Automatic annotation (TrEMBL):
The keyword Lipoprotein does not apply. InterPro entries: Ald_DH/histidinol_DH, Ald_DH_C, Ald_DH_CS_GLU, Ald_DH_N, Aldehyde_DH_dom, ALDH7A1-like. This is aldehyde dehydrogenase (NAD(+)). It comes from the Bacteria. It is an enzyme of class 1 (oxidoreductase). Homotetramer. It comes from Streptomyces roseoviridis. The keyword Repressor does not apply.
Amino acid sequence: MNTRHVSSPANTSSVASIVAGRPLPPEHTAGARVSYNPARLDEAVAEVELVGADGFAAACAAAKAGQQAWADTPAPVRGRTIAAAGRLVEANAERLAALVTREIGKPYAEALGEVREIVDTCDFFLGEGRRLYGQTVPSEMPDKQLLTFREPVGVVAVVTAGNFPVAVPAWYIVPALLCGNAVVWKPAEYAAAGAAALHELLSRAGLPEGVLNIVHADGEQTFAGLEKALAAGTVDKIGFTGSSEVGVRIGELAGRHLQSPCLELGGKNPLVVTPDADLDLAVEGALFAGFGSAGQRCTSLGTLIVHESVAEDFLVRFTAAVDAAAIGEPTGPVLYGPLLDRRFAERFEEYLTWIRPHHTVHGRARPGRITAAHPRAGFVGDPDTGLYYHPVVVSGVRPDDRLFLEETFGPLVGVTTYREFDEAVELANAPGYGLSAAVYTNDARTAFTFRRRVRAGMISVNNSTSGAEAHLPFGGNGRSGNGSRQSGVWVLDQFTRWQSMNWDYSGRLQKAQMDTAET
Ligand code: UN1
């Protein structure tokens, strides 16, 4: 660890890029930034030394140099290393979760759940180390055997957001390592301390030098670094979780090098409440989906689509639940705490300004009606110094509203109504994302029709849009991603390439398509 910033208070750590087990040399330094506690903006959590594009590329080169030895390690042995990493994370779960809470304001219970998800991921991939199956395939010719193998792709560059600062990176890092790849991880700068702590724990599991590296850099230097590394052939796969706008840029960059990245982007996730739904259950699900993590999950609820016959009743119950929710100091039992970082707070404030009455969209005047706003007095945190925001419910949201179309990434839920089921499906698909979608219904036909017709990677029936489990395919389509999937066995297709082998033991040259055995 770099210890240059000795003037920092005792509980402020110094965070540097660690490549092949050592801090990157000073010539790569390109500025610094501080990560703050969003509940107390005068409290620095970490001073983060940033590197430039050359530093990023140097990390990729080091990863390339270390990768082959790791790929040569038998997969079951790699699995045991992953398991050891999981045990280290488990043994340090409270410490890591507390750091996550302090650095990004995630309620402690959620932060602990996030750490638990890393352990679950390691548990899952321990077993995969003993499988990582290939296939034996029949040949069309006699005395010939066809086989398939999974081979690591090489170096995986992992670029992650800070809303799930440890679990989502682990969704990439753990399977990528299990598959025999080396990793260069670039976490969000505002979540660098938690990332550094996770990196340190995973590194202690016994990975060979250069196999797991962490680089702190700003967005533009990361792009430039990726470009250099792609040109040098030292990055073979990019895994990116973040906004759809940045995802498009990553996709373009990777495409120029004929690579297909793993893109997990934003969402405008609908939750449909049908007339036969259990309304109290739907209220509970919508509250957690919309306001859990302050609405800062890519799977957070965007728009409630409620059948007009139950809309009024639902809205009364929902706003009452929102008003009663505990919001504040994230170390306590709250629904949500502060927003992640100033950047997100500023963006959220833009939406708040926009929804004030008489703002116009597409040239037409349309009032935005706030039907629920938490009284400031209800906060147990310090709203003057922390990035705390009222929960906002906006009813009467129309399909051409910004609020209907854009991911707001904050404690804001739009509500609209529908008459026919087809209309609900149309509204659910309209924003063009396709990550997660939920329906509350007690009718199996409605549930399965919804699943089939809503273009989302993940469908929930009578449950929240958020809260995906660690062993199901995670990912989306449209503006939510390029169809890549994380988690479970499905992610193996991201971090391995299929190689086939044909072995002819006939003692003669058999020609495919020409010597095919007659039937
Ligand atoms: C994200 O917000 O980037 O579904 C991922 C969930 C989480 C993952 C969210 N387990 O809520």
